[in-house]
Amino acid sequence: MKLRVQQAQLAAALQQVQKAVSTRSTLPILSGIHFAAGETGLRLLATDLEIGIETWIPSEQQEILDIEEPGSIVLSAKYISELVRKLPDPWVDLTVESNFSATLRSGSVEFTLHGQDPEEFPKLPQLPPAASLTLQSDVLKEAIRQTIVAVATEDTRPVLTGICLTFDAESLTLVATDSHRLATRTLFLEVPDSGERRQAVVPGKSMQELFRLLPDDDRLIDLVFADHQMLVHAPQTRFYSRLLEGQYPDTSKIIPTQFKTRLYINRSAFLGALDRAHLIARDTQNHVVRLQIVGDQVEISTSSQEIGRVSETLPAERLEGEPLSIAFNAKYMMDAARSVDGDQLVIDFTGSMSPMILRPADDLPYLHLVLPVRTV
Amino acid sequence: MKLRVQQAQLAAALQQVQKAVSTRSTLPILSGIHFAAGETGLRLLATDLEIGIETWIPSEQQEILDIEEPGSIVLSAKYISELVRKLPDPWVDLTVESNFSATLRSGSVEFTLHGQDPEEFPKLPQLPPAASLTLQSDVLKEAIRQTIVAVATEDTRPVLTGICLTFDAESLTLVATDSHRLATRTLFLEVPDSGERRQAVVPGKSMQELFRLLPDDDRLIDLVFADHQMLVHAPQTRFYSRLLEGQYPDTSKIIPTQFKTRLYINRSAFLGALDRAHLIARDTQNHVVRLQIVGDQVEISTSSQEIGRVSETLPAERLEGEPLSIAFNAKYMMDAARSVDGDQLVIDFTGSMSPMILRPADDLPYLHLVLPVRTV
After folding, report:
1. Which of B109, B309, B313 sits opposite A108 (nearest CB)?
2. Closest-CA residue of chain B to A268
3. Inter-chain contact B112–A308, Cβ cutoff 8 Å?
4. First-residue to last-residue Cα distance in chain A
5. Fewer CB within 10 Å, N or C, chain A?
6. Is B180 on the interface with A (CB under 8 A)?
7. Which residue in B303, B309, B314, B334 has the most chain A C-beta atoms within 10 A of its own C-beta, making it the best mutation to test that interface?
8. Cα–Cα distance measured from residue A329 to residue B286, given in angstroms and rounded to the nearest whole number
9. Cα(A4)–Cα(A124) distance, rounded to whole angstroms?
10. Any A CB within 8 A of B306 CB
11. CB B110, CB A312: distance < 8 Å
């Protein structure tokens, strides 16, 4: 293997795959990055067997990459990424000798790194062309951002540590819940698929990495599902994740369809008040804060015997239905208010012991449900 | 106590004293900040008994502070600082009731915090007007920055965890050493003092806090020393630190006054090469990197059986004396090269087993000594 590549391009590609490198695997080769130079370009691959990221630099443009001799090698991620980032010259020459040893030259710098046998590196699975979805990258990213906050972080019920993706010919719905709150967003697909209704639960951590990896624009990406795996085809990148086993709970019935009180409130003012109340609430059990509707005002308050108390009054921008007093976890409510976009927030209440629904004021198919907390 | 103060001014004052708040003291009152409103203004004080920081907001300007009723209280630093920073209104009203309870009002927000008895809070020591030095704030900051990196972090010899300040009527010399390297800087005093030659060893951590606290301008500050304490008078701030006990070693004799090789080199190019070599060296014992002078070139190289090797050649900007090959700890050398200012660095060598001296190319009374590492 012998090639010349732009330092900036190689550094960017290394950064892309970095997050899939295993940090504590018992398989030493997984702490490396697989390099393969072929006819189409230079392909980089890393995997910790939970997720895998593959990215490539195409050899179409000689001013970016020039492959003189194809080949492959596995190089320790820890050294190669930082090293390439710190090279002084805009060009890097990479040569691999037959003894799995790679030499990088850049300006007057010469680095020789001991590598590993590329044949021992696991390959990304080749999924049969089963259910597949096509959608815009930025739209999927928005949906991930809006739901991921409700994913369970404790794995008492492992299936809840994932985001449940339900899809049919026309739409994809994301649901996340940790059983105290729930977030759901529906997307309409760009290229309808003929497949029947299906479900896949993708680990929250994988979705976090996918979010980081996807471009912030409207380029199309494909999601391909097999029984235990998801593969995402994005521009110059492939992302792989295993799926979570187990039946995801049916959450459709816990979302109330009626309300007793509907509150329209300025989102940033509401977040500010919650943030201040949380200063005290965070050191109490369940982070309890109370919301009380008095006339056309909303009072946010909390108190703790040890610390003190706080109260604050905000104007309601519009109010429908009955007065109300309800207590909730301030952290969950802040997470919900943050994941709703726009200046105005709509909150539907169905009584002091029933779920609250937060939605954006415009008609986006997104909602965030928060359960109240029982107080003495 | 009853006063009205600008939120931004109070938040800034709280941030100033925050670093002296005890985080793990057995004395609960030290986790608080002492507030005292009097004729001259509002005074804030925090101490962990190692260091103390006092700052004040003068009541000269009514648009900043308006004291209606003097008084004092101790409030938990954890809550008051974050709370004041998050208040929505530019003004804060602070009222203290007789039961050590404080109420803050800002806009529609009302916070009540349980406080503690201000009489129980320790006071900053009143030092007798003994040895005192007057110098510019920014000059002292520069000297701290240039020496603090060589302070010992392990306390096998506790006195080396401090910076040694030696002063006479005209100058102040700072010395730090961890016995592998040494940094020293001499300052000339703005207001010569009549006192005899004296020495005080200030803990490195205290100097770090003092650095953070001092303004970046040429305003004058006073350093006052007593047997076991140092007190710094800065604009609207007083800083207190206890001193370290024990005799600081006499380091004047270990600094070579002659050289066999003198190298002038571009500082950022030298730092870049060390940084790249350090990628491999940091995972070896003593972080060993070798510098070799070949002709008018400088080669920086290192190797490790497990990882690989690196070598890089830099041009010397000027060279005097004999060729040389020497090995050193890359981290220490980088610390030294960073603490020397200017584009060009001068390094004096007195042989492969003798100390190296780094200095700026201009004639600043600063030098950084690094010991070589013996290699096989």
Report:
1. B313
2. B88
3. yes
4. 71
5. C
6. no
7. B309
8. 51
9. 26
10. yes
11. yes
Joined together, the tokens standing for residue B190 give: 């703005």
Contact assessment for residue B163 and residue B174, using Cβ atoms and an 8 Å cutoff: yes
> For residue A70, which phi and psi values (nearest 5 degrees)?
-70, 170
- How far is it, in rounded angstroms, from Cα A200 to Cα A168? 12
How far is B324 from B356, CA to CA, in rounded Å?
12
Strand partners, B68: none
- In this predicted structure, what is the pLDDT of residue A129? 64
* Contact assignment for A108 to B79 by CB distance below 8 Å: no
Domains and CATH numbers, chain A: 2-120 (3.10.150.10), 132-252 (3.10.150.10), 255-370 (3.70.10.10)
| Residue range B290-300, pLDDT digits in tens | 999 988 999 99
The pLDDT assigned to B194 comes to 60
Closest by Cβ to B308, choosing from A87, A114, A313 = A114
| Spatial separation of the C-alpha atoms in residues B76 and B71, rounded to whole Å | 17
Which has the closest alpha carbon to A233: A56, A35, A38, A37? A56
Residues 6+ away with beta carbon under 8 Å from A16: A44, A53, A55, A213, A237
Asked whether the beta carbons of A245 and A159 are under 8 A apart, the reply is: yes
The set of residues, in sequence order, having a beta carbon less than 8 Å from that of A143 and lying 6+ positions away, is A172, A174, A185, A187, A366
**Residue B28 DSSP symbol:** G
- To the nearest whole Å, the CA of B277 is away from the closest chain A CA by 9
Residues of chain B contacting residue A311, judged by C-beta atoms under 8 Å apart: 109-110
Q: Is A59 left (phi over 0), alpha (psi -120 to 50) or beta?
A: alpha
A 10 A CB-CB count for A216 gives 9
Secondary structure of residue A266 in the 3-state scheme: strand
Q: In this prediction, what percent of chain B has a pLDDT beyond 90?
A: 79
Q: How high is the ipTM of this complex?
A: 0.86
Residue range B24-53, pLDDT digits in tens: 878 899 999 999 999 889 999 999 999 999
pLDDT digits (tens, 9 = 90+) for A124-151: 888 776 678 899 999 999 999 999 999 9
- A276 Cβ under 8 Å from any chain B Cβ: yes
